[in-house]
Design goal:
The chain is α+β, with helices and mostly antiparallel strands and 262 residues long. 36% of the residues lie in helices and 18% in strands. Helix 3 packs across helix 4 and helix 5 packs antiparallel against helix 6. The protein is globular. Bound molecules: zinc ion. Zinc ion binds next to loops. The site of zinc ion has 7 residues, from loops. One of its GO terms (biological process) is one-carbon metabolic process. GO terms for molecular function: GTP binding; GTP cyclohydrolase I activity; zinc ion binding.
Length: 262
């Protein structure tokens, strides 16, 4: 399989850089053992990194040749490799119930749950003038968050609360949901998801006065590992005026209020 494009500055897959993890070569570089660790120690370290659920960067780590192949080819290649994974697990791919799974998974990855990796799918903001001169905070509560843990590739499900104070422009309400949805359609860690949503809204709304709070359950915590079905994880980004204690408390009061039912 050749993933590299024709671009001359594209690094070769056989030459992992020192930032190997960023280019998707983490396993290659571990196995060739530049670290001096045994394979067992490396496995332990990889588990630990996964369970720590920390992000290494605000930007999703992407290969420079991420879009050198189109979505149709990505689906074909993922189908091929997922069929192999199922086979290695010992599953009989001639079974009627299983034979369509590799393609189903490949299409789901590319067209649905990881479609937010492609900037072409980023929602275009519709901005309006703040004609009402509404200068208080606007809070969009309880936005559904559905994303996938990048360490275990299982879902993270929860709620996001997004708030901003207009600097002269206002955004269509559904666009706030769309921005959350777009960044959720990536392998993620919750901290990075929170910051990516906040930074995008600051950019679009031309203000630092943006806050994002996410409360979510990680299925990698509830269905494996520590098997805790009750715990949830809260992350927050308070920009500009939201860093002021009184403004932050006002936001938290709105979020704590029960939502209206209609
Ligand atoms: Zn995880």
């Amino acid at each position: 399989m050749k993933l590299n494009g024709t671009s001359s500055n594209t690094p070769s897959t056989s030459q992992p850089t020192t930032g190997g993890q960023q280019n998707g070569h983490a396993l290659d570089s571990h196995r060739t053992d530049s670290t001096g660790l045994s394979a067992w120690e490396v496995d332990e370290l990889v588990d630990e990194i996964g369970d720590a659920h920390g992000a290494s960067s605000i930007d999703t780590p992407m290969r420079p040749d991420a879009f050198a192949i189109d979505d149709d080819l990505k689906i074909d290649l993922i189908e091929e490799h997922f069929r192999e994974i199922m086979g290695i697990l010992g599953l009989d791919l001639t079974d009627d119930s299983l034979k369509g799974s590799p393609r189903r998974v490949a299409k789901m990855y590319v067209n649905e749950i990881f479609s937010g990796l492609n900037p072409a799918n980023k929602p275009k903001p519709t901005l309006f003038d703040n004609k009402f001169r509404y200068n208080e905070m606007l809070v969009e509560k309880d936005i559904t968050v559905q994303t996938y843990c990048e360490h275990h590739f299982v879902p993270i499900i929860g709620k996001a609360h997004v708030a901003y104070i207009s600097s002269g422009k206002v955004i269509g309400l559904s666009k706030l949901n769309r921005v959350v949805e777009y960044f959720g359609k990536r392998p993620q860690v919750q901290e990075r998801l929170t910051v990516q949503i906040a930074e995008e809204l600051k950019r679009v709304l031309e203000t630092d006065d943006v806050a994002v709070i996410i409360d979510a359950k990680h299925l990698c915590v509830s269905t494996r590992g520590v098997h805790d079905i009750n715990s949830s994880t809260v992350t927050a980004s308070y920009g500009g005026k939201f860093a002021d204690e009184a403004t932050k408390q006002e936001l938290l009061r709105y979020i704590a209020q029960p939502s209206v039912t209609i």
